[in-house]
Amino acid sequence: MWEGLPVVGPIIEFLKGLIPLEEWLQSATEYILDLSFAEQFLGGILLAIIFILGVFSLIKKLSKLIIVIAILVGLWLLYTNDVFG
Question: Are residues 3 and 27 in the same domain?
Fold first, then answer.
């Protein structure tokens, strides 16, 4: 997809030669498929817990960020509009 672009193509080809990502993914897939059902099940539960905790942490941080942005926008609107005179 990106290989046809004049600047990005050589960079991607260089990274493909430098980092054998496809081989790593293939070996990881083979390793996971060689595990027993119980090991796969426990690993799936562990990954689900990590994912859920990460989503909750992201929601907490985003809600704080939204509150701070709302306060800043409110202050900006208060001081830029000449409402009081």
Answer: yes
Asked, for residue 39, whether it belongs to a domain, the answer is no
Q: What domain range includes position 78?
A: 46-85
Contact indicator for 43, 35 with CB cutoff of 8 Å: yes
Amino acid 27 reads S
Taking only the tens place, the pLDDT of each residue in 31-64 is: 999 999 999 999 999 999 999 999 999 999 999 9
Instruction: Look at residue 2 and give its three-state secondary structure.
Output: coil
How many CA atoms are closer than 13 Å to the CA of 74, on its beta-carbon side? Answer: 6
pTM: 0.58
Task: Judge if 27 and 54 occupy the same domain.
Answer: no
